[in-house]
Automatic annotation (TrEMBL):
It comes from the Bacteria. Homodimer which binds Holliday junction (HJ) DNA. The HJ becomes 2-fold symmetrical on binding to RuvC with unstacked arms; it has a different conformation from HJ DNA in complex with RuvA. In the full resolvosome a probable DNA-RuvA(4)-RuvB(12)-RuvC(2) complex forms which resolves the HJ. The RuvA-RuvB-RuvC complex processes Holliday junction (HJ) DNA during genetic recombination and DNA repair. Endonuclease that resolves HJ intermediates. Cleaves cruciform DNA by making single-stranded nicks across the HJ at symmetrical positions within the homologous arms, yielding a 5'-phosphate and a 3'-hydroxyl group; requires a central core of homology in the junction. The consensus cleavage sequence is 5'-(A/T)TT(C/G)-3'. Cleavage occurs on the 3'-side of the TT dinucleotide at the point of strand exchange. Belongs to the RuvC family. The gene is ruvC. Keywords: Cytoplasm, DNA damage, DNA recombination, DNA repair, DNA-binding, Endonuclease, Hydrolase, Magnesium, Metal-binding, Nuclease. Its EC number is 3.1.21.10. Mg(2+) 1 binds at residues 7, 141. It catalyses: Endonucleolytic cleavage at a junction such as a reciprocal single-stranded crossover between two homologous DNA duplexes (Holliday junction). This is Crossover junction endodeoxyribonuclease RuvC. Its cofactor is Mg(2+). InterPro entries: RNaseH-like_sf, RNaseH_sf, X-over_junc_endoDNase_Mg_BS, X-over_junc_endoDNase_RuvC.
Length: 200
């Protein structure tokens, strides 16, 4: 499986590509950052993010795109930019028919370090260790993007089993409510119809 991880942001959008499968050694196929000038118009910055991500998608042809799920922050302007960049990443993937998965920061930290409250330095160190790199990628946005890709590779089998179980449950519920064909409502099976005027 080849996963493109995206740590969304307007000023710096981290991008990392990891190849591997659960229980097997992982390989980094690429890592970098899509940058936009902070003084540019928001629409132009989003266009630059799109172009940058399209280049990464063209170059690596991933099987799936993993994007960090945006959560509420105190800085509203920051979270808005992050959400906008996240939407661009999902749009780029959807345009190509690629599946998109969202992972929260705590899910990524827990998958990579074992703790959902790990610091960025810990995440970077574990990413370097798991991918056999000499040092953590810089800036931290790049390391976070690789962590997203690693997180999905390791969580994909469990997510697949959950989706399959949910599909079976939905199918079973639909069969149970469908009823037996040909039976009139309101009549119990095998009960004879009463006739007027019959003696007791």
């Amino acid at each position: 499986m080849l996963v493109l991880g995206v740590d969304p942001g307007l000023t710096r959008c981290g991008v990392g590509v990891v190849e591997g499968s659960a229980g097997r050694p992982l390989r980094m196929a690429g890592v970098g950052v899509v940058r936009t000038p902070s003084d540019a118009d928001t629409a132009q910055r989003l266009l630059a993010v799109e172009r940058g991500l399209e280049e990464w998608l063209d170059r690596h042809r991933p099987d799936v795109v993993a994007v960090e799920r945006v959560f509420s922050q105190h800085n509203v302007s920051t979270v808005m930019g992050t959400a906008q960049a996240s939407a661009v990443a999902m749009l780029c993937a959807a345009r190509r028919g690629l599946p998109v998965v969202l992972h929260t920061p705590s899910e990524v930290k827990a998958a990579v370090t074992g703790s959902g409250r790990a610091e960025k330095a810990q995440v970077g160190a574990m990413v370097a260790r798991l991918l056999r790199l000499a040092e953590p990628p810089r800036p931290a946005d790049a390391a976070d993007a690789l962590a997203l890709a690693i997180c999905h590779i390791w969580r994909a089998p469990a997510l697949g089993r959950l989706q399959a179980a949910a599909a079976r449950q939905t199918s079973a519920a639909g069969s149970a409510t469908g009823g037996a064909p040909g039976r009139l409502p309101g009549r119990a099976a095998g009960r004879p119809r009463s006739r007027k005027g019959s003696s007791t």
